[in-house]
From TrEMBL:
GO function terms (MF aspect): DNA-binding transcription factor activity
Domain of life of the native organism: Bacteria
Record's protein name: Transcriptional regulator
Boundaries of every HTH lysR-type domain copy: 27-85
Natural source organism: Thalassospira profundimaris
Pfam families membership: HTH_1
Length: 121
């Protein structure tokens, strides 16, 4: 195993005690893929209410919403990422990649110290 096999999970503290981390970013990606908050939540094993609350928190945190929703009708409703939502994903991924690169030596050291066949209890 090498440090490349280890993954950094970044959490960014935003004002108002809001955290932007891999979970919310994964939720944004799932909404982008499924074009639906409920389908995105299901794909992540999360309740619709939990997904909606996380998205609402992000929508209130940024100057522009990260997701826009439409209600029923011919298009059957749905949700789409806004340009801000797309940009938040890009910024987060770039930051995570930079951190991963910056601590490569330490990750290599950790990887070298790991047991060959770790067993969970």
């Amino acid at each position: 195993m090498t440090g490349d096999d280890l993954k950094v999970r970044l959490k960014i503290e935003l004002p108002g005690a809001v955290r932007l981390g891999y979970g919310k970013v994964d939720l944004l990606r799932a909404v982008e893929e499924h074009r639906s908050i409920s389908a995105a939540a299901r794909s992540m094993g999360m309740s619709y209410r939990r997904a909606w609350l996380l998205i609402d928190e992000l929508n209130k945190c940024f100057s522009e919403p990260v997701i826009e929703t439409s209600i029923g009708g011919r298009a059957h409703g749905g949700a789409t990422l806004t340009p801000t939502g797309i940009r938040i994903i890009e910024i987060y991924q770039t930051a995570r990649d930079k951190v991963q690169d910056a601590i490569k030596d330490e990750l290599d050291q950790l990887a070298a110290s790991l047991a060959e066949n770790p067993q969970a209890d």
